[in-house]
């Protein structure tokens, strides 16, 4: 039985080029020019088009390039701040679409990082992760709309300002649900765990559909609309600075930054946990439960903690998501969503935080932007006479493409795009760097 | 003074009595070997001591307290650590991380400190790292600390397992066949290392071993198990001349050849 | 010169409008003025809904109003060559689930729009007006729909959207369309919330659940139904219409034996056991034909012979294909008029089958009409703007369109965007898919959408 | 001397045959036991609950009893559906310890092949002239062949290259395969005369068998089972028997079990592991295909997405019964089917319509699954494995 070939080390023209571009003066020049050119192209071509699509993807790849480069940390952070903090939001005021894609990518990045705690760190396969997201989303939706009056007669919605508090509440309730799920399933091994978590996810979704009777808690299949958004406290300041934006643009910016902030916090929290006694205990459990317990690691407490931490991010993000979307209904939280978050984690690189973020961004881009665009190009080509059978409309087969991509990725790069081990190996190759490089 | 007292331990699997009424007392600061033919119940006995199995009968007292009902992690936290017959490292963690995991019970940083990464956490982590490095130096693996455990050669993996066990500052360390699969040179090194465990770090050592030369050379006491029952106990001299021990070993060997 | 042409066109349009008005009163006396029953809904003022029931065969006159296609041609003829040249690319987008298990219906919507655009382009060939098509897959997911909506909105060539299949997705996307004043005309969303949420840009060419459900209930009462067993598919569509049916049925004194939801798609035995025990006169199914087909067959197999009634989600020859002889005693409510009144629908069914292989699913003809109304609004706005119109102008044009007849009915839009007045029809089905468009009209009820 | 040897040889042979018969038929007994057991336990629960509720409304008891036999039949038919799909899951899991997420799609393909065969036969005018048994055999054989080969092909393409990867990798690949198969079938179906929602033509099997008739008020409620359901159940039992024979009494079965136990050792013993795994997929896929044909025939329609939910339920059933265990898969399916049927039929009756039974059937199924796994983490018939340290 042949083992998968180990991945070839950095040789070949591309890698040499890559190494040259990410180090030293050439690296500084290259990245600065890269940022400059893509930013300029974005801002001068705000219309949605194939060209802008490509530039947008290249622009997002910049972040990856910055992360992979070996340059001065201050330069890297500065460049990232310019790109994500200024260029992208400004571009967002010109075109609402791309910044929404970026925001959704951020939402999924947080979810993927949360799931990564459970699956990647602790090695517990969870196929019902979206349930916690649903809990957070419904929490804010119910309490911020007149729906609360249907549930508790006479109750009135909480004000918009409670939004921030509800993020914290979502965090805690998500964590609580994580523990609730964790408690009964701790004794189960791999695949039994998978099916029970899957069941849990389905139970939450089915409850969301059905709990409009006998007491109307979730408004059932009709979903909840007009979900409250937080006040735009920064609007006057922007106005004073000369930006004349309407409310929609302001909200898009607000949610973009909100999500970006949560992504950063999540990265920080998950990264710190990973390099702490807790993260090491999770990894130990993943690697060998018996050996872990022999080191004095309390299995139950640590697994519960993994479930709780993972779920809490989803809970908090659910609150933000509901508020951003204005409308939620049960189909958003179906099994396919759990599966697609899991695929982000694995495609990106199980266990590795940058990898997982990359996976989330990539899958979101594929789903919302790249695949539709490819389908459109194929369709145009078909109209221009490309021999494609009449009944085949490429727009209808985006999922087919996605499925194929998943299979091909697993066959040719089963460890994900940015795997964890490689990074370790890399660190080893450059021993001057500290082991606990902030991932 | 007795560090560990296992009294009248019995464990039955299905119809098979794996450990039958075994009593064993281990004095602090000693090196004790448990020997016996394959399938004699030695590893099961270790598993009972470390809490992986619950004994059907009998009691285990460690450091003066009964630990019979405790979970393995609780027992480990009280200062009893072990290694495994078939090495059980965390293969995809680095050598240093493996040792840090062993230190888990000594790291107390609360959740919030980890999130804030404040001074007390950094201090604790720094100390843990220093101590891990020191342990790795002790077993001679410091230069390989950033390798993945799975990439170490066999002998190094055994030594890493010992370093990991030491990380919990154990009073007692149980070594399950620490030289299995080693060549004579490695075995000599391992013997040396086991002796240093006690001499330099004051750890009481109990080992399961098949290599009689090693057992005889370092053990102060030897217990012999056969078919789950303790058939002999004493120093090397006593064991070597015990007829039941000879029968257990030679009988088995004879059975093989016949 | 330009002015003269547009004047002529305007006169022409006015004349045809007059002709249309003239012929309407001529046709209406033949319809028996019937019991005025108030349509009931939470938000509906009782008095506003005037319903006329019990249509007779004689009601089938030729459609009174000008057809959309005629209107488009007439209007486009009034466009100056300069204006036509200035149009540039104009697109109509469609959003519906094109993948996943709802893709059969979603694809029907997409195909309907494509056919409408294609046929109009052929008809408009000389005038210089050409409209492109941009289909989107909303995956039946609200957030995909809203992301697509932002994509659509950010393409200034798209002046009108046809969508969605799921009202949940529509409600999630409407804020984005609304921000850009982009018209969204729905071929399938019967949920009252679509036009009740205060979006000026929301239109639809289908009925409303709060009218369709109650009209079904009234039909049940008239057919002598005493007990009804209500089933729904647990979607916003099916459950929504079933709930309105239930409210009205209770009001009319029909005993509701059960109100059950199921997302079971194939094996209905457990539910049928309960139905058998309850022994209702009628089964009301709030849902779509893919479920209704096997449900009916299994029910008839078991010897359950109760009447079967459902909403417009059953209106497809596919139902006849799936259920076959089991269709005996099945009725559905819809705003899509019978083919005898709108012969173009038959042509549509043929064209659809020729081009796309397979019968048109429900809401596909409505999608065709939606796209046609989009074109009408765009062309009107283009004439007015004398060049490429803005989205605001298209929106204004849509609101001011005269009553025009598409292939499923004659529509003008109420203030909120509902078809006004909507005529609800109740058909009894026949089991031959090829003869679906000859389903017998059982009853016809006019009902104005609520206005308050 | 010779005669004696012959006699003992005969004896030995007879003993062996008996042994084989026992291993093949015992699971059937176990299965029947579970059917009767589940029916009895659930029936008892219903009667007890109905008894307490009937104090306030005596009609509840009447209705509950009147529909009870029919609910049991419904549950059994439903159970056999899950059971037949679960067999394929469990086969593959037993050998590879891998959740073949695309198995639901293999099942769906079987359904489509059956519908296609029926359509062709109808076009040729053979559907009403052929004896029904011939029709069923043709449809099932075709469905099994196509699904089996397809399953084998998916293994070759999407899983074999990943055999030594971490467990999650083939899982993701299988999910991808599931998406691909759904859309490929959709593409083919919508370009064919079958269409997206294809009708499964069948010969006329006639009216349902009336087993009994129970009075309720002035009416009588029939207890009935359709001929198609009877065919389904008989075929499912035959499948179980055949599979048991194959796995427990043939050389191939021994090889499969050896590969399941330890792939490396099996290959050292001269077993071609790749071939055996391919065959396992072939068998599992063929079972799924047969289930698809039977299911499609029973329901009357097929569509490209119909495999997903039954696939999930079947996987649940396989886990419930103890995954990797063939009889366990059947038993798990039966228990799940009964549970769903009982909840769907009784919940709204018992709660006065406050909770719609059909809506909560899923929740009930998964809650029971969680409960059972808490108390029996290895499933109903799974063997408890003590981890070796």
UniProtKB/TrEMBL annotation, chain A:
Keywords: Cell membrane, Membrane, Transmembrane, Transmembrane helix. It is found in: Cell membrane. It is a multi-pass membrane protein. Its main location: membrane. It comes from the Bacteria. One of its GO terms (molecular function) is branched-chain amino acid transmembrane transporter activity. One of its GO terms (cellular component) is plasma membrane. The chain crosses the membrane at residues 26-44, 50-67, 79-99, 105-125, 161-185, 192-211, 250-270, 304-327, 339-366. This is Inner-membrane translocator.
From TrEMBL, chain B:
GO terms for molecular function: ATP binding; ATP hydrolysis activity; L-isoleucine transmembrane transporter activity; L-phenylalanine transmembrane transporter activity; L-valine transmembrane transporter activity. SUPFAM superfamilies: P-loop containing nucleoside triphosphate hydrolases. Keywords: ATP-binding, Nucleotide-binding, Transport. Residues 4-252 form the ABC transporter domain. The keyword Transport applies. Coiled coil: none annotated. It comes from the Bacteria. One of its GO terms (cellular component) is plasma membrane. GO terms for biological process: D-alanine transmembrane transport; L-alanine transport; L-isoleucine import across plasma membrane; L-valine import across plasma membrane. InterPro entries: AAA+_ATPase, ABC_AA/LPS_Transport, ABC_transporter-like_ATP-bd, BCA_ABC_TP_C, P-loop_NTPase. This is ABC transporter related protein.
Automatic annotation (TrEMBL), chain C:
It comes from the Bacteria. GO terms for biological process: amino acid transport. Residues 89-430 form the Leucine-binding protein domain. Keywords: Amino-acid transport, Receptor, Signal, Transport. InterPro entries: Leu-bd (IPR028081), Leu_Ile_Val-bd (IPR000709), Peripla_BP_I (IPR028082). The keyword Transferase does not apply. Residues 1-26 form the signal peptide. Belongs to the leucine-binding protein family. This is Extracellular ligand-binding receptor. The lineage of its organism: Bacteria, Bacillati, Chloroflexota, Chloroflexia, Chloroflexales.
TrEMBL record, chain D:
The chain crosses the membrane at residues 31-53, 79-99, 106-126, 132-152, 168-189, 229-247, 276-297, 317-339, 346-375. It is a multi-pass membrane protein. PANTHER family: BRANCHED-CHAIN AMINO ACID TRANSPORT SYSTEM PERMEASE PROTEIN LIVH (PTHR11795), HIGH-AFFINITY BRANCHED-CHAIN AMINO ACID TRANSPORT SYSTEM PERMEASE PROTEIN LIVH (PTHR11795:SF371). Keywords: Amino-acid transport, Cell inner membrane, Cell membrane, Membrane, Transmembrane, Transmembrane helix, Transport. GO terms for molecular function: L-isoleucine transmembrane transporter activity; L-leucine transmembrane transporter activity; L-phenylalanine transmembrane transporter activity; L-valine transmembrane transporter activity. It is found in: Cell membrane. GO terms for biological process: D-alanine transmembrane transport; L-alanine transport; L-isoleucine import across plasma membrane. It comes from the Bacteria. Belongs to the binding-protein-dependent transport system permease family. LivHM subfamily. The keyword Chaperone does not apply. Its main location: membrane. This is Inner-membrane translocator. One of its GO terms (cellular component) is plasma membrane.
